[in-house]
């Protein structure tokens, strides 16, 4: 996977109503470009008293961001190759194929969620692999993704896709197929058919 022109990545949090301001419809292609986590608030109280080693969220992010910036500067301009095992590709293809077939139930535009999530899964695994090997010297530009990093990316993507589908159904726009028989019928049709062929499959 080669990223010729990296794009800005950012994290957002908010409520469903706020998301509608960013993505007014599930037919908007912007929605499929996000990894989604729908987190539930806890009723348990958290201790808010500061301690000697207490750091605010902004301070913690600042520390981590500086570490990542150094890694970026070290490897910038390097033509890095991340390699996956055959089993990784089998799992990725199975993930995409299985969820793509299921996405039809939620609407035509839901398919883009599956396609982009599969792509993001591989990119995430590649990023984790790069971070794990960031202490190496730039004279080695080929890295193998291990099972730990791939499985981490796979699990996070699985969660995101489930939450994305859930949110997809709550957004205005395309509605899911309500009649399961209709879904089975439409999936059984060949890529090209005429009216008489459709009638034959309907029987």
Structure, briefly:
The chain is mainly alpha-helical and 203 residues long. Helices cover 53% and strands 3% of the residues.
Q: What do you see in this structure?
A:
With 203 residues, the protein is mainly alpha-helical. It is 53% helix and 3% strand. A two-stranded parallel sheet has the order 1-2. Helix 3 (86-103) runs antiparallel to helix 4 (111-132) and helix 4 (111-132) runs antiparallel to helix 5 (147-170). The termini are far apart.
Any key phrases for this structure?
203 residues; mainly alpha; two-stranded parallel ribbon; single chain; 7 helices
Q: What's the layout of helices and strands?
A:
Blueprint: H1 16-22, H2 57-75, E1 81-83, H3 86-103, H4 111-132, E2 142-144, H5 147-170, H6 180-188, H7 195-202
Parallel strand pairs: 1-2
